[in-house]
Amino acid sequence: MIKRFDIFIRLLLILLCLAGSFFLFQKEYHYTALLFLIIALGLFLELLSFISSIFEFYDKTILSILNKDFSADFKSKKYQGFYTNLFVLYEQLKSSQKEQITKDTIYHSIFNTIETGVLILEKKESDWQVTLMNDYFSHHFKAPKVSKWSYLNQYLPALCEIIEEHHFSDFKTPLQIRVDKQDYQTFILQTAQSKIYNKEYYIVLLDSIQKVIEKKEKEAWINLMKVISHELMNSLTPIHALAQNLQETTLQDTLSQEDISDIKESVGTISNRTRHLQQFVENYRKLAALPSPKKEKIALQELLKNSLQIMQPLLKKEQIAVSNEIGFDRWISVDRQQLEQVLINLLTNSIYALADKTNKQITLSGEVKEKRLFIYITDTGKGIEKEIEDKIFLPFFTTRKEGAGIGLTLSKNIIEAHGGYLTFESNENETKFTICLLE
Asked: Who has the most CB within 10 Å: 94, 141, 197, 306?
């Protein structure tokens, strides 16, 4: 077993041989002295070979590490004192490589499973190299897994051109891509630039808008079916129970005054519930059959004034102060009746939110920017609870006992039919609805 003091022993033997040779020369034992000198030379050459083998082994091991080749087996040298720290380093790097390979395999599996096109580029000198292209990207866009950006440009020029126009910066935009002379498909293109350890990466994500729309539509239909089922069951369950009770009552040979009273009450209840169902269906018809806007030019202030006049009796009754802070007037092309309905619905919603408040204030404000008209309706009411924020535009969803649950849905549909959008912001002391219209 080679110990750390092996070199010291070899040096000691060489010195002893040299000393013995010198001593024998002094005693004129020339041949014996020469023999000792030859032995010293042999030991010296063996020492050089021994040291050379140590450096050679270090060099070979380090070269394996640099080449990430951890397949070598060093069991025969594992317990040699010269290499203890080297073997510790080797085993740690080998373990790290195994862990990294495992992570890379998992990441690649994830990238190749998701239904989003993923492309990762790495900058090499002045050019970009394709580091990763997932299976969805390759299969969906009929692009082979090339290694150079210039090669990818030949297959997807529309994608490459828009990225080059943005100089490989961060941006998000819709993009139409045509594959194999088929119809154009619209995708959401999102990119991000990243620098790690002086290496520059560029990440490209392509998500099909159709897929996103289908997902949203599915979620909307599920939520709608839940609301409709809840509403129908609330009416059909008592109607069914009352009908069974009436059937049992009418099978009797004689009817008492109490039975007749129960029949009258049951019929009245059934009539009320069927009327409620009729109203529910009528509200659904209003949403489904919303007519296209009949646009006409109208002054913004006139539209606001008319809507406030309609709501004035109710606002006065509830002692709510309304402040119109829109200091400008503009001609807008809208369906007068539909936009008045939106304003009435939003004001009604604010009135309900202010029911239990002492400070009852509704503020109308607005601005024009980027060729868009923004109208803000803000109230100091109780706000919208976080739990229901994603449901307030859902048809028939309401927190009011007397509410039909179509006001906000109808308002949203009307604004979208005009090419705009309706959104809201809310906290515990304020709610602000925003109407955005294209000029």
From this structure: 141
Nearest to 404 by CA among 307, 315, 284: 284
Q: For the range 128-136, what are the long-range contacts, defined as Cβ-Cβ under 8 Å and sequence gap of 24 or more?
A: 128/168, 128/202, 131/201, 132/108, 135/111, 136/112
For residues 432 and 8, give the distance between their C-alpha atoms in angstroms, rounded to a whole number: 86
Helix (H) or strand (E) holding 362: strand 361-369
Q: Name the one residue in this structure whose structure tokens are 């110990």.
A: 3
The closest alpha carbon to 344, from 389, 420, 297, 407, belongs to 407
Do residues 353 and 381 make contact, with C-beta atoms less than 8 angstroms apart? yes
Taking residue 383's Cβ as centre, other Cβ atoms within 10 Å add up to 16
Query: Could you tell me which of 314, 295, 288 has the C-alpha nearest to residue 395?
Result: 288
Across the range 342-363, mean pLDDT stands at: 87
Structure tokens given for 299: 């002054």
Query: Residue 377: helix, strand or coil by DSSP?
Result: strand
Higher pLDDT, 34 or 177: 34
| Listed residue (313, 331, 334, 330) closest to 322, CA to CA | 313
CA dihedral 41, 42, 45, 51 (to 10 degrees): -120
Question: Helix or strand or coil: residue 435?
Answer: strand
Answer yes or no: are the C-beta atoms of 153 and 160 closer than 8 Å: yes
Amino acid at 322: V
pLDDT tens profile 202-233? 999 988 776 666 666 666 667 667 666 766 77
84/90 Cα distance (integer angstroms): 10
- On whether the CB atoms of residues 372 and 436 are closer than 8 A, the answer is yes
The residues near 118 (Cβ < 8 Å, ≥ 6 apart) are 111, 132, 133, 134, 136, 137, 203, 204, 205
Q: Where are the beta strands (DSSP E) in 149-279?
A: 171-177, 185-196, 199-208
Query: Cβ distance 156 to 142 under 8 Å?
Result: no
Q: What angle do CA 194, 198, 199 make, to 5 degrees?
A: 55
Q: What whole-number distance in Å separates Cα of residue 24 and Cα of residue 20?
A: 6
